[in-house]
Design goal:
InterPro entries: VKOR, VKOR/LTO1, VKOR_sf. It holds the Pfam family VKOR. It is a multi-pass membrane protein. The chain contains five helices and two strands; from the N terminus they run H-H-E-E-H-H-H. The protein has one domain: de novo design (two linked rop proteins). Helix 1 packs antiparallel against helix 3 and helix 1 packs antiparallel against helix 5. By secondary structure, the protein is mostly helical. A two-stranded antiparallel sheet has the order 1-2.
């Protein structure tokens, strides 16, 4: 298996774990643990109006995207599909990650550890798919 596919699979699995954590907190409404930033920053991001898109918690959308990337990559490896849907899903996820980074930095002026981790994951996915093409 080519290295770029291993990287995509690993990042997708890490993203699934990250967004499962965020999703569980979106359901229970319990505050997430803020590792590198002040606790109030994570709470500000977690409970802001920007934490949902069209009424759906962003964590759910992220979880769906990471699962889709994982499944599509496995289908690509098996020869069932082309790389194109993976490419576009990663580009879409990266674009949304940059939007959410902008919101955290310039609108909320607060960062959430787990959101930043997801942004880093999508950035690495984006770089990987760009370099692999």
């Amino acid at each position: 298996m080519e290295t770029y596919l291993v990287i995509i699979l690993v990042l997708a699995v890490l993203g699934i774990f990250n967004t499962l954590y965020l999703s569980s907190h979106a359901i229970t409404k319990k505050p997430v643990k803020c590792l590198w930033f002040p606790e109030e920053w994570c709470a500000k991001v977690q409970y802001s109006k920007y934490s949902k898109t069209l009424g759906i918690p962003n964590a759910f959308a992220g979880l769906g995207m990471y699962v889709a990337i994982l499944v599509l990559t496995l289908l690509f490896i098996s020869g069932s599909i082309s790389f194109t849907p993976i490419f576009w899903l990663v580009v879409f996820g990266f674009a949304f990650s940059m939007y959410f980074l902008f919101i955290q930095a310039f609108v909320l002026r607060a960062f959430c550890t787990w959101c930043v981790i997801s942004i880093v994951e999508f950035t690495l996915l984006f770089i990987t798919v760009m370099v692999s093409r």
